[in-house]
Each structure stands twice: as C-alpha cells, then as structure tokens.
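Thread amino acids onto this structure.
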C-alpha cells in the first residue's frame, strides 16, 4: 500500500492506494484550525482498519505539506504535479483542470507528450482573488444555509443578477444591495456562482486556453451551482465538464503515486514505521504548545457591559410609544421606547438576506412581547436597508447611522466624546463635542475588523463565536496576525495553524487584529477623547473589548443595549420629531 497526505488551508486529505493503483481508503476532513492534530487522528483511524506494516511509501503535498514532510522525513510533492499525475491515471483524455478548494484555486493546462500527460501551463489565484470554497461557505452561513442547501438553491436561479467577482469584499457589497432591493435568494446565489466562475476564467486563467475535455475538482466541485455556472461561462456541452469520482482527493492520490515511484528508485528510503509517524507529529504539536509564536499580552477585560434593563409599560390603557428600526447587512434591530425615552422592548435578529422578512419578524416579535398594549406615535428607520424598509413600514423619518448611533450614545452617557461602533459588516468612528457630531469615519470596502469576519474565522476554527471569546480570554500568548485586510490576516492564521499554534492563541490574535485594524484603518490619525463608548454587536465580544483596552491603555465603556443602539437612537429621534 502507498500513503498520500495533502494538507490544505482548510482540509486534510489522506489516501491509501493498493494494488493496481486502486484507492482503498480516502479521508477528506476539515482541519478546523488544527491540521496536524487532524492528520494524527486520520492516521490513527486508518491504523485501526489496515495493516500498516504493508505501507511501503509516503508522500505529502499541499500548502501545509512542507512542514509535515520535514517532520516525517517524507518527500514533498508539488500540488500541481500531484494533480497532473492523478488526472493522468483516471482521465488521460483531459486537457484542462479547474481546481477550486477552500482557500486556493488553480488552472492546469495539460498536453500529451510521448504518450504521457504533462503539465504544459498553469495559473494560481492571488491572495486577494475571490472564488474559493471558504467564500461560498461564508455566504451560505450569512444566509443561515448549509453549503449543501446553498448548492441546491443555486440551480433554481433563472435570471441571475450581476455580482462583482474580482474581490470577495465587493461581491459582498453587491449581495447586500441585492438583498435590500428584494432580489430572490435563488437569483442571488446563482449570481454569486456565476461571479465566481467569471472571476476564475478572467482573473485566474488570464487568457489561458480551456481546451476540452475539462476536469472540475476540489471541494467546490461538489456545488451544483458552480458546475452549472462553469458550463454556462465556458459554453460547454454535456460531458465536456467532467467531475472525477475522487474529486476532493486528487492531490493526495497523485502524491501517493509519485512518492511510491520515488521510493522504488535506487535511493530507496527507510521503511515506514507507522507509530513513529504519529509520534513525530504529536511531538511537533507538543513543541508548538510549549513555544507558541506570540507577541501580545494575554487579554484581560477591564470593562463590564451595561445590563440593558427594560422599562415596563403601564397597565392602564395603551402606552404611548416610539419605534426605531435598524436594518443592517447582517442583522436587523428594533426598539420601542416610551414617552420618557426609556426602552420598553428590543429585538436583535439575523437579516438572512431578506430585510423585509427580517423586519416583519422583528415587528411580530415586538407585538407579541408587548401584547398589543402600545400606541405607536412615531417610527424612524436607519441602517443600510433604511430606504427599502422605511417605505415598507411608512416611517416618519429615515436617518443615517451616524446620527442614530450618536443620539443613543448621548442618551446613555451624556459625557461621551468618542464612539467606536462595529457591526456585522460595517465599522464607524464618531467624535462628539457637547453631544454634537464633529467628525466621523466609516470602514473602507477592504478594511478588516467586523463581526462577520470574526464569525467566519470561528467557523474556520470549528467553534461558535461564544467559544471563540472564551478561548481568546484564556490564551497565554496571543499570536501576532497581519494588520491589514482580512485576506492577509487569514493567510497568517493558516500559517500559524499549520505550524501547530493553539486555538486559544489564534482566537486572541484575531481579537487583537480586529482592534488594530479598526484603529489603523477606520480611526487612522484622528484624535480620541477621554470617554469612549463601544457600540454595535462586536461590543459584546469581551476579547475584542480587552484588546482595545490593552492597545489604548485605558478602559472603555460598553453601554446598555449596545447591540441595538442604532435602533434606540432612531426611536429617540422619532420621539423628538413627532412629539
């Protein structure tokens, strides 16, 4: 038997080949931030099923393969060469390979030379190119869909809208706009698949030929929407886009084949000792735990979050009240206040790519909680979906987020002079003097540091956002991640994962990176005041709060109802303007 291991950015692939180059075992497992531990677990599982003494060769490949190869004294096989070898075994007629994985995308141009299939040319995605599996999973998660549900819905699209495909950040912006104008979910998902296919053919391939037949492999090849999109973009007839049987294992298969051929050379390597393989990997994991690559102090928060108590409506007759609605790209918030401006009820829920439906759900929840005992005298709407929802509910006022966030901040802390606001997709900085906005800034399209990024990285590490916070606050030595855009931060995160860094230190590093990116890219060189309020959904993340406090050297205030301050401010403005 021959063993092949491919360590990718998001998954670990392992195959065992038997006689006749037959795949007798294959594993495709998400690494969830611990590729070395995942590899050990797979090897131990295989050792319980197969006679490991019959394994005569071992090879490794992938973005994390070099380090593993050094640990195991095993040959490293280039991914492109490995994929070419596997395609030659199963589909020697192929002339082009499209490979889309979790973080990387590749184009292989193949040709026959002296009876052998060889790699004639290739292209790889750049760090900032959209069009990989992780982006699709992120968008599915934002819509509260599994990737399988996402795939099924994509093929229902009949009229796909145009979505930018060159950059994942701009694609997100297009998606949010389409959601806010009521575009059906199937059309958005179908448009997203088309955008990724167009991006691959233009920005990755860059003019290279797509000679037929074409192989489509990697994790994204399981997505029926992407299969359909490539067939449309490349104008393919049935049968011209081939999905291999072992579509997610091809690099590991090629690696096993090439390593076996090298092992049969005159310079034959030492026999494989299975227990030694697992012991070497575990030793590297233990060493990484002892020698964590750090750079930041452990996170200890100095701030307590406001309790967010709600007032009670009076029991006689209907309470005169005012409603504020904040429709964001990720979440929709609503708050009802009484005649004194005190919060009576609030709702925070996911927009789930449908702002009108989210608004309906929010209003239904408020109505049920207040038992119909309200006389709503004024309504104001804010947030990125304010125009659509404002018309839908017949709002008295439609206000921008800067105004509403500032109004809520002054209501909860009259001395406030600085506001940090970080939500699901947006970040804002506001400076006040005597309660009046004198300066503000918004995050740029490519600025890192929002709640959706944290959720995406929690998903990558295989934990909930609550678990991510707990891990971060327990980290003894947070890693130092990139301080630029999310793509480079993700690259640094993957690098540390593949070197065996602990999840806790990675989680703490993410909290620091959110704070650093906010200060560097949103605040920039603007002066900070003495009384800083931290608002928005991310303010509930105690690890990020602690990171800000460590970086600034002072405590900050997380006010009551921090997650719905936009809606609160809108309700207060509605009261003032309609009374």
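Threaded sequence (579 positions):
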């Amino acid at each position: 038997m021959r063993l092949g291991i491919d360590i990718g950015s998001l998954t670990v692939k392992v195959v065992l080949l038997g006689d006749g180059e037959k795949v007798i075992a294959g594993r495709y497992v998400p690494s969830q931030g611990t590729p070395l531990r995942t590899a050990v677990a797979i090897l131990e599982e295989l050792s319980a099923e197969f006679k490991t003494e019959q394994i005569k060769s071992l090879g490794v490949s992938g973005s994390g393969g070099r380090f593993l190869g050094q640990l195991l004294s095993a040959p490293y096989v280039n991914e492109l060469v490995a994929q070419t070898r596997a395609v030659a075994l199963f589909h020697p007629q192929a002339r082009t390979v499209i490979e889309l994985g979790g973080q990387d995308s590749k184009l292989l141009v193949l040709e026959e030379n002296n009876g052998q299939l060889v790699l004639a040319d290739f292209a790889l995605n750049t760090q900032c190119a959209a069009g990989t599996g992780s982006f699709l999973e992120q968008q599915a998660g934002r819509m509260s869909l599994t990737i399988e549900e996402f795939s099924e819905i994509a093929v229902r699209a009949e009229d796909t809208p145009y979505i930018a495909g060159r950059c994942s950040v701009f694609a997100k912006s297009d998606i949010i706009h389409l959601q806010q104008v009521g575009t059906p979910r199937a059309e958005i998902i179908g448009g997203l698949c088309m955008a990724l296919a167009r991006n691959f053919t233009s920005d990755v391939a860059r003019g290279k030929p797509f000679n037929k037949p074409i192989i489509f492999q990697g994790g994204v090849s399981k997505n029926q929407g992407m299969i359909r999109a490539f067939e449309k973009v490349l104008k393919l007839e049935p049968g011209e886009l081939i999905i291999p049987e072992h579509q997610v294992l091809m690099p590991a298969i090629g690696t096993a084949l090439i390593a076996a051929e090298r092992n049969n050379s005159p310079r034959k390597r030492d026999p494989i000792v299975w227990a030694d393989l697992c012991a070497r990997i575990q030793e590297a994991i233990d060493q990484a735990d002892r020698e964590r690559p750090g750079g930041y102090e452990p996170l200890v928060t100095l701030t307590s979050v406001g309790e967010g108590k709600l007032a009670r409506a009076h029991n006689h007759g209907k309470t005169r009240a005012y409603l504020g609605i904040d429709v964001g790209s990720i979440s929709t918030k609503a708050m009802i206040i009484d005649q004194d401006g005190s919060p009576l009820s609030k709702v925070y829920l996911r927009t789930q790519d449908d702002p009108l439906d989210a608004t309906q759900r929010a209003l239904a929840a408020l109505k049920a909680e207040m038992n119909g005992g309200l006389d709503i005298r004024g309504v104001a709407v804010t947030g990125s979906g304010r125009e659509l929802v404002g018309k839908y509910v017949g709002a008295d006022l439609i206000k921008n987020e800067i105004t509403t966030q500032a109004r809520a901040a002054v209501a909860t802390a009259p001395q406030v002079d600085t506001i940090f606001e970080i939500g699901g997709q947006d970040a804002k900085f506001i400076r006040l003097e005597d309660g009046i906005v004198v300066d503000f800034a918004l995050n740029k399209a490519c600025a890192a540091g929002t709640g959706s990024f944290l959720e995406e990285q929690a998903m990558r590490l295989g934990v909930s956002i609550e678990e991510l916070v707990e891990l971060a606050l327990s980290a003894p030595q947070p890693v130092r991640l990139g301080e630029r855009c999310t793509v480079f931060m993700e690259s640094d995160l993957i690098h540390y994962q593949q070197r065996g860094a602990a999840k806790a230190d990675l989680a703490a590093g993410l909290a620091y990176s959110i704070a650093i990116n906010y200060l560097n890219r949103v605040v920039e060189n603007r002066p900070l005041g003495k009384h800083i309020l931290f608002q928005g959904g991310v303010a509930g993340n105690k690890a990020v709060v602690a990171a800000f406090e460590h970086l600034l050297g002072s405590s900050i205030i997380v006010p009551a109802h921090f997650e719905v301050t936009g809606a609160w401010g809108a309700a207060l403005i509605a009261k003032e303007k309609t009374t």
